[in-house]
């Protein structure tokens, strides 16, 4: 059986979001049966068909002044004529997102919400991070996954005086890998179907016929 393709398309201004994108790719490639197509938004004009052949697309952008970078926004707007106007070619694909900024919050949620809305306009199905928040008690640690506490997608923080070889920190990169792995697993499950062992148990009230 051939592998499914998960595309990761991103913009990176200083290299930090590119590292995050590489981490997403590593997570995808942990999953047997999945492969990753990693693209910078600058490559999009020549790769619309490749994006269209992917089963899922994960979007990544730095958060600048409370939203996507200008380069990523240009890619989004270009998709209107390249994808939407040609028959909503991404309809029913899976989607997810990640973003990086210089501060712990940095208004990254606003960017993730914009990415989710962008996916919705294409008729795509959004996959969330599915990680509990971490580093929010005396027992927490900056080394925990999802240390920044995002649910909608993967967030990362890079100190503005550190180059991309030092930031984002390992915990944020592993959080990004988790997102890539989750998208690959969910997409495979949808494309190939769940096994009997993977079927979730029905709630007690369903099995008991109480409602």
Outline the structure in words.
There is one protein chain. By secondary structure, the chain is an alpha/beta fold. 36% of the residues lie in helices and 18% in strands. It is built from six helices and seven strands. Strands 1, 2, 3, 4, 5, 6 and 7 form a seven-stranded mixed sheet that branches. Helix 1 crosses helix 5. The longest helix has 23 residues, at 170-192. The model is unreliable at 196-202 and 204-211 (pLDDT under 50).
What would a concise description of this structure say?
By secondary structure, the chain is of the alpha/beta class.
| Overall geometric form | globular
| Strand percent estimate | 15-25%
Provide the residue-averaged pLDDT. Answer: 92
**Secondary-structure element sequence?**
EHEHEEHEHEEHH
Query: Helical stretch count?
Result: 6
- Poorly predicted ranges: 196-202, 204-211
Q: Kindly provide the radius of gyration, computed on alpha-carbon positions and rounded to a whole number of angstroms.
A: 18 Å
Report the structural category: alpha/beta
Overall helicity = 25-40%
Sheet having the most strands: 7 strands, mixed
What is the number of strand segments? Answer: 7
End-to-end separation: 42 Å
Secondary-structure blueprint of this entry?
Layout lengths: L3 E7 L5 H13 L5 E7 L7 H6 L2 E9 L2 E2 L1 H15 L9 E8 L6 H14 L3 E2 L27 E4 L12 H23 L11 H4 L4
Parallel strand pairs: 1-2, 1-3, 3-5, 5-6, 5-7
Antiparallel strand pairs: 3-4
Main traits of this protein?
single chain; 211 residues; alpha/beta; seven-stranded mixed sheet; 6 helices; 36% helix; disordered C terminus
């Amino acid at each position: 059986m051939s592998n499914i393709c998960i595309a990761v398309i991103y913009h990176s201004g200083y290299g930090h979001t590119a590292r995050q994108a590489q981490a997403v790719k590593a997570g995808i490639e942990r999953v047997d049966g999945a492969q990753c197509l990693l693209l910078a938004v600058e490559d999009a004009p020549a790769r619309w068909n490749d994006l269209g052949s992917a089963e899922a697309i994960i979007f990544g952008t730095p958060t600048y002044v409370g939203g996507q970078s200008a380069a990523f926004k240009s890619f989004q707007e270009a998709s209107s004529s390249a994808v939407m106007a040609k028959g909503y070619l991404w309809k029913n694909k899976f989607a997810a997102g990640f973003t990086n900024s210089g501060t712990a919050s940095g208004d990254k949620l606003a960017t993730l919400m914009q990415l989710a809305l962008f996916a919705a306009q294409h008729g795509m199905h959004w996959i969330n991070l599915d990680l509990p928040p971490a580093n929010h008690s005396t027992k927490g640690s900056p080394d925990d996954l999802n240390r920044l506490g995002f649910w909608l997608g993967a967030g990362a923080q890079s100190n503005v005086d550190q180059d991309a070889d030092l930031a984002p920190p390992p915990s944020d990169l592993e959080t990004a890998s988790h997102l890539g792995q989750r998208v690959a697993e969910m997409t495979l499950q949808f494309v190939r179907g769940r096994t009997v062992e993977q079927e979730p148990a029905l709630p007690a009230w369903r099995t008991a016929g109480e409602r």
